[in-house]
Amino acid sequence: MPDYSFSRRGLLASGGALLATPAIAQDFPARPIRLVIPFPAGGPTDVYARFYAERMTRELGQTVVTENRGGAGGAIGAMEVARARPDGYTLLFGTASTHALYNLVTRQPQYDAAKDFQVVATLGGGPLCWLAHPSRPGTLAEFLAAARSANPPLAYGSPGTGTLMHLATEILKRESGNVPLSHIPYRGAAPAMNDLIAGTLALAVNTLGAGLPLHQGGRARMLAVASSARAPQAPDVPTAAEALGRPGFTAVLWHAVFAPPGLPAPVLARLSAATNATLADAAFRASLNTAGIEPAAPGTPDSAAAFIAAEAARYSPIVEAIRPELDA
User: HEC string of the chain?
Assistant: First the structure.
């Protein structure tokens, strides 16, 4: 059974926070804010989180300190924030993995992504892309045509079973007529990319930011990017929707900011307003675009929660379709 014992502590903490709401709201933030990144340093989530923390430090007038708390696919850092005092001084830089997919793919989830957090804002993120070795056919359609007749089946690599990259590629397979590509889960994206470059892997899926240097350097060929429009950093690469002839096909490793439940409304409003100012800043958006990240438009906590719920609903059917692989 899932362990939700910390939820009661959160409720008690939130009750105390309500009594102190006027003072908290008036002074917030009065000290540095801790932003937990639930993945190791150096990855796409870490890159975006540090951009965000730097810009929010200027916006709030208090230092936003990043802290990497990786492990268990992001669950360790997420649970740490869910247990924290709901005063706005401990936040989570969550992702699609921690808040849209976790409760879908995990056998015994340790938190409820919808109930055990207060959504502050969605921030956008890195669209996925599919890359092949340069010796492979040059378009996604040609690659998939070759895959249909390959014996043994061609394989694709992802950063792991149940990751967004894995699920998005399974959707791509089905959108292409159930192309018989076999899945090889790796312990992270880097080993898969190494095998792709070496020519021992036919296809790999990664974020646009990670794939761009390989594509631009000729070490891999980007076949498609799962963004709503062609990426300005690689205008020669079609979108997945173009390549498949399937309008609306997108897949983004998105990011969002979360707080523990029971956050006082004025504090939530302050964090939301500061995040919207950050997302509207032209220099901030330009820095993200250079890194292959698509920032979201400013929004509200309610719109952010609705987006996350829609993403979970979107991936639920593919999770059920590959449940035997997930449970193996």
Answer: CCCCHHHHHHHHHHHHHHHCHHHHHHHCCCCCEEEEECCCCCCHHHHHHHHHHHHHHHHHCCCEEEEECCCHHHHHHHHHHHCCCCCCCEEEEEEHHHHHHHHHHCCCCCCCCCCCCEEEEEEEEEEEEEEECCCCCCCHHHHHHHHHHCCCCCEEEECCCCCHHHHHHHHHHHHCCCCCCEEEECCCHHHHHHHHHHCCCCEEEEEHHHHHHHHHCCCCEEEEECCCCCCCCCCCCCEHHHHHCCCCCCCEEEEEEEECCCCCHHHHHHHHHHHHHHHHCHHHHHHHHHCCCEECCCCCHHHHHHHHHHHHHHHHHHHHHCHHHHHC
Looking at residue 189, its pLDDT comes to 86
* Residue 226 CB contacts under 8 Å (≥ 6 apart), including other chains: 127, 128, 129, 168, 239, 240, 249, 250, 251, 252
pTM of the model: 0.86
Task: Please state, in angstroms and rounded to a whole number, the distance separating the CA atoms of residues 129 and 58.
Answer: 33
State how far the Cα of 302 lies from the Cα of 310, in Å rounded to an integer. Answer: 12
Per-residue pLDDT at 277 exceeds 60: yes
Residue 55 to residues 33, 50, 142, 184, Cα–Cα distance (Å): 13, 9, 43, 38
Amino acid in the structure at residue 294: E
CB count within 10 Å of CB 45 equals 26
Burial zone of 172 (CB within 10 Å; 0-12 exposed, 13-18 middle, 19+ buried): buried
pLDDT in tens, 106-134: 989 999 999 999 999 999 999 999 999 98
State how far the Cα of 182 lies from the Cα of 251, in Å rounded to an integer. Answer: 20
User: Cα-atom radius of gyration of the chain, to the nearest Å?
Assistant: 20
The arithmetic mean of pLDDT across residues 62-71, rounded, is 95
